[in-house]
TrEMBL record:
<dbReference type="InterPro" id="IPR023606">
    <property type="entry name" value="CoA-Trfase_III_dom_1_sf"/>
</dbReference>
<dbReference type="InterPro" id="IPR044855">
    <property type="entry name" value="CoA-Trfase_III_dom3_sf"/>
</dbReference>
<protein>
    <submittedName>
        <fullName>Dehydratase</fullName>
    </submittedName>
</protein>
<dbReference type="GO" id="GO:0003824">
    <property type="term" value="F:catalytic activity"/>
</dbReference>
<dbReference type="InterPro" id="IPR003673">
    <property type="entry name" value="CoA-Trfase_fam_III"/>
</dbReference>
<dbReference type="InterPro" id="IPR050509">
    <property type="entry name" value="CoA-transferase_III"/>
</dbReference>
<dbReference type="Pfam" id="PF02515">
    <property type="entry name" value="CoA_transf_3"/>
</dbReference>
């Protein structure tokens, strides 16, 4: 009887070489590994630019690097030497898929590698479509988001902490590989895929209306603090100083909010005075400051526990603002099947997320990240057919580590 394939590993059998650093491509590679692909990250001897990136453990191990490379194999090669480049080219030709954000290197360009593997899938992430360099924070600065982020009275840009474009770009990278593999299975042909980080940001800004709004209406979005554009949403502070984000997207949400805060009659009177229809989400947004003034009285008269209990009995969308330190002890982590206990070498044992997609009710669990070069010898033997003596000679020469 033939064993049935594991539904949580739909990419089993797909082999990928990753040459990368920082967020986008490492995230893409890790996502593909979590879906069952065999992903081998190739780094320079001593590690790439992100190998020691903060946060670090007390002994200097990068928590960041371990977090983005779970479940991969690691090969360390002297990427500057001709012999090292030849080895990597052979590994890529054997795997048939390369993902990289180390752009502009002729020796692992699509043109060069296609000669070795005609059906190669080559996915390259770059900073900008014109070939210029860029990272999440510089791309974000040039798109417009920092000028609409932050308090309403602020005159300076505010960068975001979350590298949103890197994350989106990493997921586009994984999607590009999956679709290219399907295309190759159907046609026998490889693909060359380019994903400029700046274009990912521009596409998102356009799809969400930030750019279209200017083109059509001739007006740029303004800063609105913690409000939600076009809807009613605001943060409130309880009597004991805890902050809450409260969102009323629908008419029911808004009615529940007015009933909870005892402002139903006051809101109706405000609507008459302003000529506003608060059944309309646009009017709830336009007059958000006046509405917030009414609701604030209730929040400042109740403690956090009372606010939480009261909001929980309604349809209102809400959450208490929390720190990362709060979150790691919360049931949303400790009792969440997404997280499993992971013994990460040199980092320690901790709860780590696997793939945040439940497949037939199961979340693929996290697998430890390798140490740099952990799989060098095994990969060279298994994939390139090198002998132990061959590997020893390459190691002695400093070509691999």
């Amino acid at each position: 009887m033939t064993d049935r394939p594991d539904p949580t590993r739909p990419l089993a059998g797909v082999r990928i070489i990753e040459i990368s650093s920082f967020v986008a491509v490492p995230l893409g590679g890790m996502t593909l590994a979590q879906l069952g692909a065999e992903v081998t990250r190739v780094d320079p001897v001593g590690g790439a630019a992100d190998y020691h990136r903060w946060p670090l453990t007390d002994d200097g191990t990068s928590i960041y690097w371990a977090g983005l490379n779970k479940g991969k194999q690691s090969v360390a090669v002297d990427v500057r030497s001709q012999q090292g480049q030849d080895l990597i080219q052979r590994l890529i030709a054997d795997a048939g898929v390369l993902i990289t954000n180390v752009a502009g290197r002729q020796w692992h360009s699509h043109e060069t590698l296609e000669r070795l593997r005609p059906d190669l899938i080559h996915v390259e992430v770059s900073g900008r479509a014109d070939g210029g360099t860029g990272v999440d924070y510089t791309v974000n600065a040039g798109i417009g988001f920092p000028m609409v982020t932050g308090p309403t009275a602020l005159a300076t840009p505010v960068n975001h902490v979350l590298p949103a474009w890197d994350v989106a770009c990493g997921l586009y990278t994984a999607l590009a590989v999956v679709t290219a593999v399907r295309h190759r299975d159907a046609t026998g042909s490889g693909q060359r895929v380019s994903i400029p980080l700046e274009n990912v940001a521009l596409a998102t800004a356009g799809n969400l209306g930030f750019l279209t709004e200017v083109m059509v209406n001739g007006a740029s979005r303004s800063r609105i603090g913690n409000s939600i554009y076009g809807q009613y949403g605001q943060h409130f502070t309880s009597s004991d100083g805890e902050s809450f984000m409260v969102v009323a997207l629908t008419g029911r949400h808004f009615r529940d909010l007015t009933e909870l805060t005892g402002t139903t009659k006051a809101v109706a009177a405000l609507g008459v005075a302003l000529g506003a229809d608060f059944t309309d989400e646009g009017d709830r947004y336009r007059y958000r400051d006046a509405l917030t003034g009414l609701f604030t009285v209730w929040f400042t008269a109740h403690g956090a526990a009372q606010v939480s209990e009261a909001l929980s009995s309604t349809s209102i969308l809400w959450e208490r603002y929390r720190t990362f330190a709060d979150v790691v002890t919360d049931a949303k982590v400790t009792d969440n099947p997404l997280f499993t206990s992971l013994d990460q070498p040199r980092v320690g044992t901790h709860l780590a997320p696997g793939l945040p997609v439940a497949i037939d009710g199961t979340y693929p669990a996290a697998v430890p990240a390798p140490e740099l070069g952990d799989h060098t010898a095994a990969v060279l033997r298994d994939r390139l057919g090198l002998s132990d003596d061959d590997v020893r000679a390459l190691t002695d020469a400093g070509t691999v580590a």
